From TrEMBL:
TM region(s), chain numbering: 6-27, 39-61, 73-92, 104-128, 134-155, 167-184
Organism: Draconibacterium aestuarii
The name this protein goes by in its record: Putative manganese efflux pump MntP
GO molecular function, a single term: manganese ion transmembrane transporter activity
Similarity section: Belongs to the MntP (TC 9.B.29) family.
Any one cellular-component term (Gene Ontology): plasma membrane
Membrane topology, record value: Multi-pass membrane protein
Localization per record: Cell membrane
């Protein structure tokens, strides 16, 4: 593992965690009385699913990589650019409405965890296409998501909902930049 790979995985974890961060901010806004143990459960679910989905995507990518090895870097770039673009669009939306929900209900918690982890599935798929190792990036993604989710709930108690939209824009930009890096490495290096 090179320092460049480590930095890339950390930035990937940060980029992927912005959806979870935004959800956590919403949880903090809606449940300002949230206790540390409750926050840890919510963050744990979000981090677990965020770490699980790249593994699922990686297995799928490993199965089909030989079929698409000549253009896999374009697929990885396309997936990351699409996800990043989607996050930026969500961040730009000005609706800012928060519905009253209970993030401690298992059904809600699993739904939020899956919804915030779909992009991680695509990243795992990219890893499978590119024949990249999965365990270290998954550990980083899970850890970063847990920390970001805990911070999000803390911030949600203390900041306005407008900032959660800005975090989606930043996360989307990071994912697009990683996609460009992957494309550049395969085309020119």
């Amino acid at each position: 593992m090179t320092i460049t790979q480590l930095i890339t995985f950390v930035f990937l974890g940060i980029g992927l965690s912005f959806d979870s961060f935004a959800v956590s901010v919403s949880c903090g806004l809606m449940r300002r009385e949230i206790k540390f143990g409750q926050a840890a459960i919510v963050a744990g679910f979000l981090a677990f699913f965020q770490a699980l989905f790249p593994v699922l995507g990686w297995f799928i990518g490993e199965i089909v990589k030989d079929l698409i090895s000549s253009f896999d870097h374009w697929i990885a770039f396309g997936l990351l650019a699409f996800i990043g673009g989607k996050m930026i669009v969500e961040g730009v939306k000005k609706d800012g409405s928060l519905t009253n929900f209970n993030p401690f209900r298992l059904r809600v918690l699993i739904g939020l965890s899956i919804a915030t982890s779909i992009d991680a599935l695509a990243v795992g798929l990219s890893f499978g296409f590119l024949d990249m190792p999965i365990l270290f990036p998954v550990a980083i993604i899970g850890f970063v998501t847990f920390v970001a989710s805990m911070l999000g709930m803390l911030f949600g108690k203390n900041i306005s909902a407008k900032r959660s939209h800005q975090s989606l824009i930043l996360g989307g930009t990071i994912l697009i930049a990683i996609g460009i890096k992957i494309l550049a490495e395969h085309l020119w290096f």
